[in-house]
């Protein structure tokens, strides 16, 4: 049976797993009716939590991490996918309970997959990865609420990260005035190059908010959670909407009912793990149409499997900006 390379996590005597680069066969993969020759994955915050042991992500060991992947179908018993087709994999417990994308072969049920849009290839798809997909799903939440560019500025918290960078770029491309929130002054030039009209210091939002504050934003995409989300809610205009995803700033939400009952503010949760296939397909298509290769390349760093462990530590320590692309063949 053909061997392939994979990054695999083994249980250890410490909180951090034992990270090994190994040669495996298809017998080491979880079950599924589609086998993929994987080309690229990406390093997301959840992956970094799993690899460093800073979060209880892995449910069973050994496990191949990687919550997303993109490649070419090798074998398929699913009538929706034929050998030779390019596909994208995200969510559904991949890299947590089901062997994931940091390997040269991936096997999953066909229901986990979507076909790669004609405007993308595997590399570009994973430059977006789960972070990009999540950012686009947040943008769709605003668009589907009928929020228009003329309604006012849109705040994006955690704008220097993968989700926030994509959301900032797509919103700017669609004509919205984007106010990017970041804790890193050095990211200001890059965020403005992505289309942000203003770059705001995160410290403005990491404080106790009044029940209602002066209105600033027609909408917001929050990737931080905690106090930042509470402050954004208090600053929404009448009828504003906040799309919330992520909890790097905390899982508690200290707010009041006033923004919701006095300003008609809407809080929309965004999940990419179990998003329906039709929703994911729509999001990938819009990503392919609203970000140029130059914009993606400027926010992406490419690494091989051997560099994943070190880079995961950097991501946990807030030393990574933009997207980390993993060429699993390098």
Structure description:
The protein is of the alpha/beta class. The protein folds into 2 domains: 4-116 and 299-327, Medium-chain alcohol dehydrogenases, catalytic domain (Quinone Oxidoreductase, Chain A, domain 1); 131-269, 3-Layer(aba) Sandwich (Rossmann fold). The chain contains 9 helices and 15 strands. It has helices spanning 45-52, 122-144, 162-173, 188-193, 226-234, 258-262, 277-290, 293-297, 308-316, and strands at 4-10, 18-24, 34-43, 68-76, 86-90, 105-108, 113-115, 154-156, 178-182, 198-201, 217-222, 236-244, 266-269, 300-304, 323-327. The strands form 3 sheets. Strands 3, 4, 5, 6, 7, 14 and 15 form a 7-stranded mixed beta sheet that branches. The protein has a 6-stranded parallel beta sheet with strand order 10-9-8-11-12-13, sandwiched between helices. Helix 1 (45-52) packs across helix 9. The protein is globular.
Highlighted features:
Quinone Oxidoreductase, Chain A, domain 1, 2 domains, 7-stranded mixed β-sheet, single chain, globular, Rossmann fold
């Amino acid at each position: 049976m053909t061997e392939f390379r994979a990054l695999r996590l083994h249980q250890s005597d410490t909180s951090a797993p034992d990270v090994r680069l190994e040669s495996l066969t298809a017998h080491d993969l979880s079950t599924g009716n589609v086998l993929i020759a994987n080309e690229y994955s990406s390093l997301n915050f959840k992956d970094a939590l799993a690899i460093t042991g800073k979060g209880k992500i892995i449910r069973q060991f050994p496990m191949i991490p990687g919550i997303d992947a993109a490649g070419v179908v090798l074998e398929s018993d699913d009538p929706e996918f034929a050998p030779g087709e390019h596909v994208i994999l995200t969510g559904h417990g991949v890299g947590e309970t089901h062997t994931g994308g940091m390997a040269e072969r991936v096997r999953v049920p066909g229901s986990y997959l979507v076909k790669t849009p004609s405007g993308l290839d595997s590399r570009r798809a994973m430059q977006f990865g789960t972070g990009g997909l999540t950012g686009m799903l947040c943008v769709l939440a605003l668009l589907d609420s009928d929020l228009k560019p003329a309604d006012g500025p849109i705040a994006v918290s955690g704008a220097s990260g993968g989700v926030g960078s994509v959301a900032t770029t797509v919103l700017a491309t669609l004509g919205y005035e984007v106010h990017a929130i970041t804790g890193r002054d050095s990211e200001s030039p890059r965020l403005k190059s992505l289309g942000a009209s203003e770059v705001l210091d995160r410290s403005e939002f990491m404080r106790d908010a009044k029940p209602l504050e002066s209105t600033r934003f027609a909408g917001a995409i929050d990737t931080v959670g905690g106090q930042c989300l509470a402050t954004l809610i208090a600053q929404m205009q009448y009828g504003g909407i906040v799309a919330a995803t992520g909890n790097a700033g905390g899982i508690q939400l200290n707010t009041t009912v006033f923004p919701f009952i006095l300003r008609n503010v809407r809080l929309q949760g965004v999940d990419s793990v179990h998003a329906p296939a039709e929703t994911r397909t729509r999001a990938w298509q819009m990503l392919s149409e609203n970000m140029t290769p130059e914009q993606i390349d400027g926010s992406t760093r490419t690494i091989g499997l051997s560099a994943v462990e070190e880079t995961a530590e950097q991501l946990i320590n807030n030393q990574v900006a933009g997207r980390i692309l993993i060429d699993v063949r390098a």
